[in-house]
Amino acid sequence: MNALISVSDKTGILEFAQALHAFGIHLLSTGGTAKLLADAGLPVTEVADHTGFPEMLDGRVKTLHPKVHGGLLARRDVPAHMAALKEHGIATIDLLVVNLYPFEATVAKPGCTLEDAIENIDIGGPAMVRSAAKNWKDVGVLTDASQYPLALAELKADGKLSDKTKFAFSVAAFNRISQYDGAISDYLSSIQQDGAHALFPAQSNGRFVKLQDLRYGENPHQQAAFYRDLYPAPGSLVTAKQLQGKELSYNNIADADAAWECVKSFDTPACVIVKHANPCGVATGTDALESYSKAFKTDPTSAFGGIIAFNRPMDRAAAEAVSKQFVEVLMAPGYSAEALEVFKSKVNVRILEIALPPGGKSDWDNGRNAVDVKRIGSGLLMQTADNRELSIGELKVVSKKQPTPQQLQDLLFAWKVAKFVKSNAIVFCADGMTMGVGAGQMSRLDSARIASIKAQHANLSLAGTAVASDAFFPFRDGLDVVVDAGATSVIQPGGSMRDQEVIDAADERGVVMVLSGVRHFRH
Questions:
Q1: Residue 224: its H or E element
Q2: Is Cytoplasm given among the entry's keywords (predicted)?
Q3: Could you tell me which residues come within 8 angstroms of residue 328 by beta carbon, excluding any fewer than 6 positions away?
Q4: Is the pTM of this model over 0.85?
């Protein structure tokens, strides 16, 4: 049996090659890999000696030869193929171990030039991988070090790879080539005439890996599956570990993502309760219990069957409070043993553990998407993700009445929450707690009315609250509704042709008005 080894990433390759040699497998290799194996005392034949043709063009041509591809592509069950190999003195290659030039890692480096990128486009490697993967019944093709243990286990047990494993390796090989080519296409098609890189390439090649099939989609008559990015960011929902509960549904995952993205944006202990993709309760507190208790008060009715997310580990006290309500999914960076014990009897509750991004809030970008994608009929909409953060120094006070320090904090809290509420969004807040949320209405005026109505139903007073509007007030009527409900300070982006009319209304009503200069539509 012959094995050809040519790897850029040499993780584990020496040990793997030593094991192959111990099984009596003849080793072929190229360049640096051959030197590594030879220096370790392994008998290895360089591909140039095998083909009788030297490497050339600075290594650009070394495996593109009939003795390589003939040995990979010949079907052992076709007599004509085997006769052709014999006629031309070509030996079969039964195992191919190849990983590719590090194109993705190269272009991710700051200052990468087009020349650097081009020189890291592998040609011979993908060609060999495709040949071996096409002929999977006769050739095992390994493209990742994680496959080495399984291959060695089967070789040790049976002296060969099973058809099941060879086919799985073949599929993985074609997937890897697809990912590699997609990365090259994305990079090269983003280059503009002046040499700069366009934010959105001329061709976009999505590369996602399926995590699981789902029972159904948004509705039982729809089919669904859950995928992750090829290289998922730390601190994102797809990195979650499910500790308990039923299988996640399509709606669970969508709502869980909304809750997690919102809760991890807070520096202090926070809790977010989401229902149908909208936060129905958000609060900060000294710990998980206090933040949950405040968030739940916002809208106990909507919280029933909701998704609950914490940005701090849960202890027993918080778990006991949460366990008193019906919850679909619970998320936190960690759980005490006592907290998990509380939920043992609630076997259907889906409990997810998600590590916060490394470095915490200061490194939050590590867990956020850079680009958002929305599917439309036969196409995609792509945009940079709404990752805009707002600081007190960016606020512009336009009312005669000046905000107090507490009002500024309340306004920023309300603004942070409004960003995660479906448009049109109106959010009442006070003391680090949502008091009323109006979401997803065609009229901003209706959102304002609904937010105040929900506060009334929850027996919450809106007197002295801060209000955030995710977009400008087109008329003063929306402002009048929130002030009539009890708001004394308002934050909105501004930008309406009637801004002055609305500002004058704020002065007339004696409330604080602050402009953010940023809109947060969320559809």
A1: strand 224-229
A2: no
A3: 252, 255, 305, 306, 307, 349, 350
A4: yes
